[in-house]
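Notebook, bench 3.
Goal today: get a predicted structure for LAM_G_DOMAIN domain-containing protein from Rodentolepis nana so we can plan the truncation constructs. The sequence was checked against the plasmid map this morning, with no discrepancies at the termini. Length recorded as 187 residues. Pasting the sequence as submitted so the record is complete.
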Amino acid sequence: MARATALYAAGFYDKVSQNANDPRFSLDDFDFSTDQLQQYSHSITNMLKKCKLDNGVCGPQHFEVVRTKYGICYQLQIPMKPLVQLELILDPEENEYILPNDGFIGFFILLNYSSIDRGDFFIGTGFHNIVRLSVVVPSNGISCDHTGRSQLRVDSITQTVKSALYQSLLPRGLTNTVVDSDRIYIS
């Protein structure tokens, strides 16, 4: 709980809770450096329990730290090809949240800062999530955004409650975080 104590000591929690209901709210409005925000944020090293991209293994070193209006996020570059499979097992570290938190424990997924409808979504804890994405090819034939990267579109999201059997089938090294893990398939 050292992170929670640091949040209170810095006055960060008070500032955020006072402004969180304002639709114009952004963490960029506060005078916190990226290093300070990282100190109070979840660590990809602690959250990431498994990462598999197609047939290769990926780890925390493959994620880039990005500061957004939501705070510190972790970005993974995914190759743009007709079929890509990404499997993640993530621990939302529910024990690190300070109550009240309005029940928002989980992961907010952004697709390349997409401005396309359904370009972002929330994945809560306690579910097995399957997300199907596709590459967007606009009518003008140019399939990239202002940064030169292709855009992704969410085609479907399926959530089912994880069963005890599913949880017991996870690799042994993950048994201490089974309840807190979410699994996402992207293809």
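Strands lie at 48-53, 56-57, 63-68, 71-76, 86-90, 106-110, 120-124, 127-135, 152-161, 182-186. The helical segments are 2-10, 12-19, 34-40, 44-47, 164-168.
Flagging this for group meeting.
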